[in-house]
Amino acid sequence: MNYDKKTIRDIDVSGKRILLRCDFNVPHDKKTGEIHDATRIVASLPTIRYLLDRGASVIITSHMGRPHGVWKPENSLYSARDHLEKLLGIPVPMTTDVLGPDTKAKCAALRPGQVMLIENLRFCLEEEKNDPNFAKELASLADIFVFDAFGCAHRAHASTAGVADYLPAVAGFLVEKELAFLGKALDEPKRPLVAILGGAKVSDKIGVIKSLLQKADTIIIGGGMSYTFQVARGGKIGTSLLDEGNIEFARNMIAKAEELGVKLLLPMDTQVTKEFSGDAEPTLVPSTAIPDDCMGMDIGPKTIQLFTDAIRGAGTVIWNGPMGVFEFPAFSKGSNAIAQALAGLDGAVTIVGGGDSVSAVEKTGYADKISHISTGGGAALEFLEGLVLPGIACLADR
Ligand code: ADP
Ligand code: MG
């Protein structure tokens, strides 16, 4: 996939009608509508302001949750709209329908330098089906399509990819930044490239492991997925997470790394408990000799040393997947140490992607010392797998 996409900087937007796909799918209280985390709305401001400052009229679209075609108040974009109004300091009219008479009327009234929001597109089943007529009708509202919802880039929906069949399509600033960091890290990384992989299941990450094995100089495997690799090399893992169907895959990956000259590091010591609990007193054991009645919860101090030594000389680090059950403070030490190691690198490009990985890093307080924290979640993972993302592929090449 070509990552060198045209952006709003590359085209003349002044006086144009812009259909802007944002990701306003923010966590919020289902009853009161109160927004718990407005990061995504705040992150979309540079693109919106840039367009408004140049006299464009901006029609924003987004989804909120998964209503699957049913109009439910808790899936309305009203609270996101209210928040956006406060941030922008100007009115943001919102439609009461999707592509109905109210949408038509509000679009017709929109003037240069003004912005409006269309109600949750997923209230219409056509959105997720990428229905061509629905996409065409959306496209008919504007002159240019701007995609800035990176977290939805892996979905071929009417508002993410479908509309690009009918309008010139370019990237907004959020998407531009994601492409610059993730694309460069995969295509022309500053070496050595160290990939850190963790999280719960091997099966979730097969594509990511395969893809990064071809690109990285060092691969570090920790977290829940590491136990399957330990079994593959003859270790005993007690009751730790095991992805039985992927032992053979792990064995192949270990062999492949050796063949390609990629350094593959696995944990040496593991903090184990008898129960899956944040209060259980952990015992430190060798990672290949976990007692039968114990499960791995986090990496141990020798492993932290091994991993941080490998990170120290990196030119680029890509990290996906926590090193332990970080949701329990007692088992967040491994992930914290990795975040600290990334934060301490001088002149390296450091990238964190994946929903849980990002929240793990945000908990550590080192987030502002990481070069790029992807807003992508599943989209970032598919990007790292080297898959074509429909929301990106449909944008004009530079
Ligand atoms: P991401 O969302 O960043 O892609 P994943 O969803 O793959 O990450 O993995 C995150 C989950 O992995 C977390 O909920 C964490 O508790 C779990 N995890 C990490 N290490 C272990 C472990 N040793 N045992 C069980 N679960 C683990
Ligand atoms: Mg996850």
Low-pLDDT sequence parts: none
- Report the radius of gyration as a whole number of Å: 23 Å
Across the major sheet, the strand order is 9-7-6-14-15-16
Shape: elongated
Q: What percentage of amino acids are in beta strands?
A: 15-25%
Count of strand segments: 16
**How would a textbook summarize the main sheet?**
6 strands, parallel
How large is the count of helical segments?
15
Structural write-up:
By secondary structure, the chain is an alpha/beta fold. It has 15 helices and 16 strands. The protein has helices spanning 39-43, 45-53, 78-88, 101-109, 125-129, 132-139, 173-187, 202-215, 226-232, 247-260, 301-312, 333-343, 355-364, 378-384, 390-393, and strands at 17-21, 57-61, 115-117, 144-147, 169-171, 193-197, 218-221, 236-237, 263-265, 269-273, 283-286, 289-290, 295-299, 316-320, 349-352, 372-373. It has a six-stranded parallel sheet, sandwiched between helices. A five-stranded parallel sheet has the order 3-2-1-4-5. A three-stranded antiparallel sheet has the order 11-10-13. It is elongated. 50% of the residues are buried. The structure holds adenosine-5'-diphosphate and magnesium ion (MG). The site of adenosine-5'-diphosphate has 20 residues, from strand 13 and helix 13.
